[in-house]
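User: Continuing from earlier, I have the next pair ready.

Assistant: Great, send them over.

User: Here they are, in order.

Assistant: Folding the first of the pair now:
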Amino acid sequence: NENKKATLFIQCLVDTIYPEVGGAMVEILRRQGVTLDCPTNQTCCGQPAFNSGYRREARAAARHFIQVFENA
């Protein structure tokens, strides 16, 4: 049996509006024997800023996101 691992990115939409979805996702994955990593230093991925025309801010957020999830 191979060790299953996943790194969770909890999107702002889920975190803000549907937090129960994040909780359900964790529960389901754990039931399947998946070891979870949820980086506590994760922040916005930058898409909302990008979609709103704030390219510089989006770039900064995306760089941080890439650093946090680089080894995921």
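And the other member of the pair:
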Amino acid sequence: TFYLDSDDASYLWIGPTAISGFTTSNALVNNGGLHGVVEQSGSIALDEVNYYPIRIQYGNNGGPGSLSVYFSTPTIAKTNVFTDFIFYNDNNNGL
């Protein structure tokens, strides 16, 4: 499960739509709109043998803004520590 806490809009995509065809309606996490800090979440089944592209977009309408990203699994409590879970693929510009 992925979580976005943001003021204002934020969106998260994982998989092919993170690269192309991403819209607010197909985001795994859609925390759109103008609002104070609000948390939204979405779940997806992933396996440990594949790499998955991820896209996070954030926008602030004015004033102070914030974005926090978290994840959890059946064996990992909700955390914002992505060490050993997020990698950049140097072989093809991150894709």
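Worth noting for the second one:
The mean pLDDT is 92. The longest strand covers residues 2-7.
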